[in-house]
Amino acid sequence: MQNWGRTRRFLIYPAVNFLNNRRSNPIAANPVFNSAFGLANHRDSPLYSESEKSNLHTCFHSLRDKVVETGIRSAIRFQHRGFGSDATKIQRNPLFSTLNSEDISYFKGVLGEKNVIQDEERLLTANTDWMHKYRGSSKLLLQPRSTEEVVINVSLMNNIISFDKVSGILVCEAGCILENLITFLDTQGYIMPLDLGAKGSSQIGGNVSTNAGGLRLVRYGSLHGNVLGLEVVLANGDVLDMLGTLRKDNTGYDLKHLFIGSEGSLGIVTKVSILTPPKLSAVNVAFLACKDYFSCQKLLVEAKWKLGEILSAFEFLDNLAMDLVLNHLEGVRNPLPPSLHSFYVLIETTGSDEAYSKEKLEAFLLHAMGAGLITDGALAQDINQASSFWLIREGLPEALMKAGAVYKYDLSLPIENMYNLVEEMRIRLGESATVVAYGHLGDGNLHLNISTPQYEDKILAQIEPYVYEWTSKHRGSISAEHGLGLMKANEIFYSKPTNVVHLMGSIKKALDPKGILNPYKVLPHSLSSSS
Amino acid sequence: MQNWGRTRRFLIYPAVNFLNNRRSNPIAANPVFNSAFGLANHRDSPLYSESEKSNLHTCFHSLRDKVVETGIRSAIRFQHRGFGSDATKIQRNPLFSTLNSEDISYFKGVLGEKNVIQDEERLLTANTDWMHKYRGSSKLLLQPRSTEEVVINVSLMNNIISFDKVSGILVCEAGCILENLITFLDTQGYIMPLDLGAKGSSQIGGNVSTNAGGLRLVRYGSLHGNVLGLEVVLANGDVLDMLGTLRKDNTGYDLKHLFIGSEGSLGIVTKVSILTPPKLSAVNVAFLACKDYFSCQKLLVEAKWKLGEILSAFEFLDNLAMDLVLNHLEGVRNPLPPSLHSFYVLIETTGSDEAYSKEKLEAFLLHAMGAGLITDGALAQDINQASSFWLIREGLPEALMKAGAVYKYDLSLPIENMYNLVEEMRIRLGESATVVAYGHLGDGNLHLNISTPQYEDKILAQIEPYVYEWTSKHRGSISAEHGLGLMKANEIFYSKPTNVVHLMGSIKKALDPKGILNPYKVLPHSLSSSS
């Protein structure tokens, strides 16, 4: 209590609806939101994924070569090296036919001249993932304007179809940008149940296809709980109308869940119905220091009970993560005076009553300081302070990219054991690398990042498969929220038993017998090649 | 405001953890929790569902005949007539073999003598559903004690496997009684995210298999959001270990959702991992009167904003429902003085802070009265009052059964249109029936009940298919939370398009090619008979 009294940093601010504005970091928390769509081509001649590479080292060089070849000089320099695997180069499925001028004419007939894109620069953008690590070889980009026209890029399908102010149920097309939906709902007194750093560019169809997690999951749960309905186009062109707008519907198997998180490999999401929570405007953010990981855990448990219904985020980072963001990101400062803090926790509360929320959070912080769970802390005084606290946590991916090469892992682990992995990796790698940890502690989601001056195969060999094996041993997930994509398709067995993966394969075969939807992704190559 | 001051019924009570005790009504809100398991028989000789009937009229008589035949005199009298359909008698699948003494010896070898039940009385209980409307013809009841031994009755598989106090994640066997889990969690400071009238008898495996909704859905969402993992035994005996204990896991298709709500027809749930919310002990209950349905809707919207994070139930009933419960259930009284109220709303709040929750609810009620949204109301003063308020709402199914025959419908509808159906039915049926409406307004779930002195075919013909057609036209669900079972299997097309149902059929065929799991249920007979 005395300590608490002495620190004068716990100032209260009048939270004025900064919920939707507090973050504008362009770095995506999830790399695949926009690339989640594969393609359904009624003539079975896919235009995509000709020779994607999953060996990143190879990819890195060959991509630079290609960039030179194609004469595009503005190529992004690859400072960072992502979460890698030793998977071999993908061979194009020989059953796939190749694009010819007849196909192009056909598509122009369906979509109109201007929605069939062959411009090299636009193709390069569409073929490249957000981290600039992978590059497809598609020669054509199709932009449908309606479900009937679908395939591939749904960015022109960006209409809000309906919103019910009583139930809070929103129905929209898949190409709606998440941030636009957030802005629209704000005028209606509602919010989206998910929020991401990448909201400015990611589309709701991609969010659903990748089962995006993000910053509100601890409060509002996953998309499996919030998505009420989907319209999906299957590989054979069939349109599945599962676009229910009901909170409860027990009529048969709830097939929409197959498409949530299947990364576009079972069908293309074209419309989404989603339950949105009412907007509660009393938001407070505290930035706290803890002396050890055990204190962070205890703080979480206490917060769940004592903050209860107003807790909306519980994020953590360790001191190496803090150093990194302070050293590499401009305009970021530690709100707490320099000291030997081992861990930092960001707590956000959201409620319907400003005075009460403030009072409750303050009482909780006093209690936590009295109990020795936190050693210092600051309570945002205004929206700018709150944004600056969030910037520390959200600036981490960018800071890591600026620091050099980075090996990234997105793991779910039992909260109790989570940080043991970080400590083991530090011992294992010694001076050769900086092991940085942060993540959504409230969800048990660790973002483990290993930063080195430059990429080295021998460092990768020390990390993998060790990290995957460790995660598997502790019944964790090797991909908490980012999905498997191409890179981790073969690593699925670390998190799923063989017979479960085989059942996934059967379902893939039933829905997409020719394997034309987002090929080579999600399922292990052994399964996809056999089809 | 003046009105409010005059009514002295808004008394505050110190809510002393009555959350888990407030209801003990034995009438289940969901009829199929315990009957959700079909059977997987590795020798392909099912013991169940020989000749279940979906024509209730036939069923009603034939069941009485059988009861006489078997000499069991304590048979329950069938006062009520349930939600009916004109579906014809089910023919036993001729591919199924019949039970012989060799089978019985085999099962005794596997499960032990005492877990192979042939006792007539125990078989009668197991063959009869909770409403005593359907009766199976199984000659044998098997009670496995472990996943390896499964199938059919999992009541002996009732162990809690683990509970993580930091994350709130519970792992248990499928046979655990919901109420026992609630009691266990109470000692740990957590609650189950679902609660039902039938908690004293329903098992968690059945809750999951039927995607039980219940009373906490408005606050904590559906089981698709809360169930983190399942262990499932397939028709071929294969055990699928999807028993993750992680909030986030994006490694491949999330297949557990196929089994949530599939009524045991795709596999048998043997273990469940579920996220449990922290227990918040400040519970308040108000019982309110509204002059019309529009006011109920407006009250809901206001409650979502003004009560926000503490709103935990929003139930409604109309004046005919109130009359019915007052006339047929002993010990129930209207907490509001007799007056011409058209609608009643029960609001429950749950929060972490007693004083604040009370204050907030009172302020909201004052506001609602001032705005003319409610015409009268009472705030429970103690746990007994709160229980008596809940008893009105939860006593309705029992009161309906006592009142005579009843045609029951469990519908999801857009909240805006919901009550139009009730009014249309009253016009349609005139004096011949009493149309009673109540339900989970916060979830858009209407329990439409049509009460008559005795069952009549011509009344059924006026109700069906009209109710289903009306629901379909408004994109509602003909089964919000009760499932399709045998009775509504053929009605699935009212809520799902043909190609979606056919895809369900493909999945059924892939997982259970011989159709031995809970046969004749969920999917339309046209699909199941073709397999």
Automatic annotation (TrEMBL), chains A, B:
Stored Gene3D superfamilies: 3.30.465.10, 3.30.70.2190, 3.30.70.2740, Uridine Diphospho-n-acetylenolpyruvylglucosamine Reductase, domain 2 (3.30.43.10), Vanillyl-alcohol Oxidase, Chain A, domain 4 (1.10.45.10)
Tagged with keyword Lyase: no
Membrane-spanning intervals of the chain: none
Tree of life domain: Eukaryota
Gene Ontology CC: one annotated term: mitochondrion
Cofactor(s) required for function per UniProt: FAD
Keyword line: FAD, Flavoprotein, Oxidoreductase
FAD-binding PCMH-type domain: residues covered: 99-279
A single MF term (Gene Ontology): FAD binding
InterPro entries, alphabetized: FAD-bd_oxidored_4_C (IPR004113), FAD-bd_PCMH (IPR016166), FAD-bd_PCMH-like_sf (IPR036318), FAD-bd_PCMH_sub1 (IPR016167), FAD-bd_PCMH_sub2 (IPR016169), FAD-linked_Oxase-like_C (IPR016164), FAD-oxidored/transferase_4 (IPR051264), Oxid_FAD_bind_N (IPR006094)
Similarity remark: Belongs to the FAD-binding oxidoreductase/transferase type 4 family.
Protein name stated in the entry: D-2-hydroxyglutarate dehydrogenase, mitochondrial isoform X3
Gene name of this polypeptide: LOC107424558
